[in-house]
């Protein structure tokens, strides 16, 4: 009881402190003598509320932006748009946030304000990171870091390092992610930025979860919670509490995990943010499911699905894509206009030079007449002839310059034509991606809807609930697998998605992927054996080879019988390293063998009625060939299958030991 009273007093004190700051700013508002001062007050109110009440933060941000626009205050409007975008981002409204940031970016370019540009590029990068468009995110972060280094803006540079850490964490390059997070903390301690240091500490605590001793991350997370309480940042505190719950769940302390997960969910419900509520409710569902409390688990799964559906609105995705396309089209149009102006300037110069040539020709003719008249004087004739040669040489030099300029114009025309063709290709590719997503993703979600309708229409016994969860799990696996495959394929098609060749340890890569599929194999009592010898490396793209090997292992599990065995082996020959994944399962019929690795999509049920997407092997072939490799299959129906991936060997030697930096 005493602890509850102390907690209530603490929360009351924080609320009073925030209300005091709000009251102070509201009191200053009618006293402000200029529109610029009023815009800054609205901005400060929005920044203050974004930590606890995103709706009010959005209202004050909109007021600041409207006043700045009406008063012609470009700098104030850009600042208001960056803050307003943050409020939209917290609410999960990515499309509106992106529109705010792009407008702020345009204003920053117009007024040549480096600080505004840095903030806008960071914010645009954050949106693309949320949308899983890593290439565009890194591109915007890189521009922001270059500008921040140029003006020695340590505060915003620390934000860039923190965001790059997020990118490498998503790529599972946890050591590189940890390096960036620690660089960010160092800069934030130097400038005394508690708010962002709390975010970086949260990220360090989270990434340590993947280094084998997740409890090492708890001190960083609890320190993040304390800092967030000091700066009254409920959003990051909420996330830190969720990560603490995740670590306690990972080390088997379900009671503490539930305690901190509840705190995180209660804070999420107060924000009314679908994004935060979905994250917190999903964690609660996972913890209750691990505790075998299926009734509570189902309740929080329902809450998660409600808010996830809001976030995944098709119209919002369409608006986001349209905003991105509009901005990039404007950039291309500006480049075309500059090129057209340059061509007109060059045409004027050529015309001037042609007139000069005509004039010089006339001069030469006059000189010839003079030479005829003065023919009697050899000395004068010699002098005139020398002048004639000099003029002729000058004419040749100018003529060569004209030819050179004509060639440059022709080259620029070719570049312009290629850019237009690329724009058309990008448009066709975008339509193709939307077609695949709208066609293939509807099936699994209609299945979800049908299963949930059955569950809601009548009271169900525990066995029926379990059966429904099993159906939902299978449909979710299919939907997630299809979504991952479509995203990998789309990323591989984009111009920004290039192959990153590096020496990759095949033994370590195989071990990592076996760990990811082991839980699926254990459900069917299947043994997965890594026979890949240590020390052999291949020159390839690690992320793409990860996808290929994981798909081959999942297929082997899918088509293996109970108690079977899957073997991963390595052969080296003629500078090639060949990984083979073999099983003694169902095998592939001769009719289906001809359909593998083609655009003709088909799928068959596994030995335990597992569903597939029909995209996996087609993507495997594209990704392996993009890494200068090849893939083939040998199979006999009823006797199992052997898939082989041949890749160039690397000349460097990769050690098996991974050290924490």
TrEMBL record:
Q: Spell out the protein name for this chain.
A: histidine kinase
Signal peptide location: 1-17
Gene3D superfamilies associated with the record? 1.10.287.130, Histidine kinase-like ATPase, C-terminal domain, Tetratricopeptide repeat domain
Histidine kinase domain span: 436-651
Q: Which residue stretches, if any, does this entry annotate as coiled coil?
A: 324-356
Which Pfam families does UniProt cross-reference here?
A: HATPase_c (PF02518), TPR_12 (PF13424)
Q: Which reaction does it catalyse?
A: ATP + protein L-histidine = ADP + protein N-phospho-L-histidine
Which EC numbers does the record give? 2.7.13.3
PROSITE patterns xref list: HIS_KIN, TPR
Entry keyword set: ATP-binding, Coiled coil, Kinase, Membrane, Nucleotide-binding, Phosphoprotein, Signal, TPR repeat, Transferase, Transmembrane, Transmembrane helix, Two-component regulatory system
Q: Which residues cross the membrane?
A: 357-376
Q: Answer whether the UniProt record assigns the keyword Kinase to this protein.
A: yes
